[in-house]
Amino acid sequence: MAGMVSPSSPAFTLQRVNAQRASGRDARWLANGDNGGMNIQLNGQSRQIPAASTLSTLLLQEGLAERRVAVEVNGEIVPRGLHGSHALHEGDRVEIVHALGGG
């Protein structure tokens, strides 16, 4: 298709999503009385998230639910179709990246 950038194209790069962007949202759920949080590593930074979070809820919290992103948990890529059922656990290492096109 014209205009599409393939992963093998030199103009295709992956960029880590900014994990600090949602710090205000973290404070909001803590202020609402949700004290059952857990700690994870999100793109190399320590984060506290609500207990019983899934990848889908994390992406929603990060404002990335509608974005095309790749997600890796503890070194394993989690397919998009499993984001809703993939539960996060204390100490998980989550990497979220999205593709950037251009030239």
TrEMBL record:
PANTHER family: SULFUR CARRIER PROTEIN THIS. SUPFAM superfamilies: MoaD/ThiS. It comes from the Bacteria. Pfam families: ThiS. This is Thiamine biosynthesis protein ThiS. It comes from Pseudoxanthomonas wuyuanensis.
